[in-house]
Amino acid sequence: MAPLKNLETEYPIIDSNFQNFCASHGIFSVEDFLIHDLYMLAAFAEQNVSSERLKEGITQILSIIDDMHQPWLNGMELLEDAKRNKHFLPTGIQGVDLLLGGGIRVGQLTELVGPSASGKTQVCLQTASNVARNYMMLYLDTGNSFSPQRIAYFLGKTNELASAQAKNQILQKVMSNILCHSVFDIFAMFDVLHQLESNLRCQERGGGCRIRLLIVDSISLLIAPVLGGTSTRGRALMASAGYLLKKLAHQHNLAVLVINHTVGSEGGTSKPALGDSWKSIPHSRLLLSCDRGSNVYNVSILKHPSMCLAVSTLRYLSRALFCIYLCPFYIRLLGRLQGLLFRTCPYRFAGDEKNIEKMELFHE
Amino acid sequence: MGSKAWLVEDESAREMLDRVLTERPFLLLPPLHRVPLRVGNIVEIVGPSPSAKTHILIQAAITCILPRQWKGVNYGGLGHLAMFLDLDCRFDISRFSDLLNHRIMEAANGSSSEVDCQIKESEAQNATTKPYNEELFASCMRRFLYIRCYDSSEFLATLKTLHYRLQKERETHGVNVHVLLIDSIGAFHWIDRGSSSFSLEGDTRKSLHLQSVTETVVQEIRKLLLVHPMLVMATKAAVLGNRYSMNDSKRNYRTWSAKDNLHSRNVTSSDQQVPYREYMPAVWQSLITHRILVRTTDADFVNGEHQNVSTYLSEWLLPPLNSVDKFIVRDTGVFVLS
């Protein structure tokens, strides 16, 4: 909200006469022009002595306002940009990749919802290990759930046939490509994201290895404490966070993956947390659930820009695809809102293609 | 003779009607086909998320940008420009281009079942989906104008400069903009409400909060429609009320009612009459000339093998018609079932 007089050096037409005229109508900065009627202002300027200069000043302000919005694009330009920049980042988990048509889409905000202990962090870690082979990525960790040992384990699993030296090289590369930040409240996340935005803008001119994936595990832990109550500030923060993530995704060609948990709703079912205002912010929403009795992991689409399907579920009936193995001493404290202690259970996590026995599309 | 000259008629009423109906035709867009729409109408599409609202806008945009006739094939479009203001920032251009491509194929081949077979054949032959008719596709895509707004200031800046942009596009393309699509109008609602506590000193200075932003938006749209008559369609995400027995609404009513009276129309105490929770200020509600409510149902529609698509219901609230239409979204666009 810089005052008008700061523009005087760059645009000499906005002189003190113009500033006084604007001040008499309650306009002190360019943002104030946005909520005033410019035609009325021009009519008032007509009655003034130096009407021509004032009207030129108004026209100059209009051209400054023209720079304040995003550029207009036509359909072909959009499509070109989508083809060139907005490709898919494979997660390395076959079920998720198949369901999403290739992987997490660059330029979009994908949300992973699931009850506690349904494998959300495991999906994140596997995606991180897969993407970090080729690109850099940023992992925002809110609950101390980031585990480099787990990433090393995933890399080992998928590179079983490589030599020890090659394995080590890949491990080094992946580990150096993952940037992990711990954030424990929403303002810290805003800090990190604004810093990232300015870094990316500088890098655009300089080139170099750029970040392609941003994971926030989990965004619900950051937003839920500020939501609720009678204040609207929490929802405003949540909406701003969502828009900042979408802006980063689109303008700097990142894929953004956020984690959300579930809460109970009427009727005993569960629904994603953060309420209805958050519902329309992510591009795609995936629901994860784990059926511990049969070691089967389900992933369903709740929302997707290209699919108007009813909850489409890919259920893997084989033992191997999608069961999560956790080291016996890996205990995780989950979302303080749910207050559950995650117990170690023998699950197996494997991404091998040869173990797919049967795949069926169910619709619920 | 000189004073009588202005009494000479320009055209008869019939000629005027013919002219107006060709220049400003009625649009019957499914699923809004029950009420013919024309320029100057402002339609609001309300519904919970997700309920195919953006698909309805895309349908309108495609109908607008397709030509009426091209190389002997009748496409049934208007051949005008369409402007899309993406406030949700969730628009997927690949989905849009797929729908456009399918519409072109369908029109060129006559029926949609043939199109499905052809698509399967062509997909079997080559993995990349090339547009069916590249030249027509490119010319249509160029008539689709798109802009994203990440906050209210950008939205207001877009609206303020829209007049000059419309003039410029008219000169470049030679045709007018016929539809202005806004997705979705309540996108910055919470952000603007949250910023009202940052109001500055005194009453003389207006700050960028919800009421002033909405008033300015309404004012700009009104002025724009005087000079550039367009059909305006805006989507709005809303929480459905008790009439449709959504689980959350009861809780929301209790927490919101105390704070919302300033900004929204006073809702009557009997919730049964209100189909959804209105949160846009009264000044926006007075701008709307048409309103339709869409929502999803639990029923599934079997669309070919291995594909169950969700059915949506649409109901006109303004003008209030007592009928409910069912529709699905296919590859060729919105398809009305009943």
UniProtKB/TrEMBL annotation, chain A:
InterPro entries reported for this sequence: HRR_RAD51_Paralog, P-loop_NTPase, Rad51_C, Rad51D_C, RecA_ATP-bd
Keyword ATP-binding tagged: yes
Domain RecA family profile stretches: 85-262
Principal localisation: nucleus
GO molecular function, one term: four-way junction DNA binding
Domain of life: Eukaryota
Protein role: Involved in the homologous recombination repair (HRR) pathway of double-stranded DNA breaks arising during DNA replication or induced by DNA-damaging agents.
Family designation: Belongs to the RecA family. RAD51 subfamily.
Descriptive protein name: DNA repair protein RAD51 homolog 4 isoform X1
Source species of the chain: Durio zibethinus
TrEMBL record, chain B:
GO BP terms: double-strand break repair via homologous recombination
GO annotations of cellular component type: Rad51B-Rad51C-Rad51D-XRCC2 complex; replication fork
PROSITE patterns xrefs: RECA_2
Gene Ontology molecular-function annotations: ATP binding; ATP-dependent DNA damage sensor activity; DNA binding
Domain RecA family profile: 17-239
Signal sequence coordinates: none
PANTHER family attached to this UniProt entry: DNA REPAIR PROTEIN XRCC2
Name of the protein in its database record: DNA repair protein XRCC2 homolog isoform X2
